[in-house]
Amino acid sequence: MQIENLVAQINAQIALLTYGESPIELYEPIRYLMGLGGKRLRPLLTLLGANLYTDDVTHCYLPAIGVEVFHNFTLMHDDIMDKAPLRRGNPTVHARWNENIAILSGDVMLVKAYELMMHAPDKHLRSVLAHFNQCAAEVCEGQQKDMNFENSIDVTEAAYIDMIRLKTAVLLGFAFGLGGILADALPAEVALLKNMGENMGIGFQLKDDLLDVFGEAGKVGKQVGGDILSNKKTFLLIEALEKANDAQRKILHYWLDETDYIPAEKIDAVTEIYLALEIDKLTESKIQHYFSLGYAQLDALHAPEAKKLALRAFMDWLIAREH
């Protein structure tokens, strides 16, 4: 099963979605955000998960796209909370319209996600909705923890990993497990898929943290060093604060507290400390750790080895990606 073909099918199905017509202010922002593209990672994982157990995944498309609609709903609301001006290089919904419209349009997206989940076969519907409800609540828990971190200076590595597991990874885990459920996989297999997706999701977010500092702006698609400028409590900053000597820690706290600065100087100063402490290598090692757990869980699945190849290649790409 070719990844490119699946993504093309996902985008074709998304283009066919209808949301409503009036009032236009309610529905146009949804079409706008869903039309901005993205990796379509989550629905892709659902289809790849299902493909491990069945050759025909056509009945999985609409629930899989429901995962993507839910993901974009969270982005629409996250952008409001983060006061983010851009999403995928374009104005965020609240910036292009206003916050009230973005809140209400996001609410409709959540309803649409449930509508798409309802296309799961009746025999699986209760299970799908139970897993989805748990996932949705955990994503909100993760977002709240992330906001709590903004006013905390002593975030631990364990607390950070738990936050990104909830905010990012559980949705990847749900997406994988959803594919297994829709393909009649045994509950033990669904649990393995879910855990594999969560480990991949943690590695995926850590890779994002790394690329935000050490990626190339042209490939990443956003300003490099944005997390440094916003004092975001990433894995890199948490580890640097823990491993820094007194002089390095003083510099880090200076830039965390300073409000009047030249952005490039702050990015350069913090990045220099990261390099001196080899935080980049430490992060790469942590990324590999979580993906290794995912590979082991993939090996444990009772699915044909030939069908695992596409999934293994996709995981390889996630580790090596530059954006």
What does this structure look like?
- With 323 residues, the chain is mainly alpha-helical.
- It has one domain (3-320): Farnesyl Diphosphate Synthase, CATH 1.10.600.
- Helix content is 76%, strand content 1%.
- The protein contains 16 helices and two strands.
- It has a two-stranded antiparallel sheet.
- A hairpin with a 2-residue loop joins strand 1 (86-87) and strand 2 (90-91).
- Helix 3 (41-51) packs antiparallel against helix 4 (61-82), helix 3 packs across helix 8 and helix 15 (279-300) packs antiparallel against helix 16 (305-320).
- It is globular.
- The two termini are 23 Å apart.
- The model has no long low-confidence stretch (mean pLDDT 94).
For the termini, the CA-CA separation is 23 Å
Number of domains: 1
Strand content: under 5%
User: How do the strands line up in the largest sheet?
Assistant: 1-2
Order of helices and strands: HHHHEEHHHHHHHHHHHH
Tally of alpha and pi helices: 16
| Major β-sheet profile | 2 strands, antiparallel
Kindly provide the name of the CATH class. Answer: Mainly Alpha
Mean residue pLDDT: 94
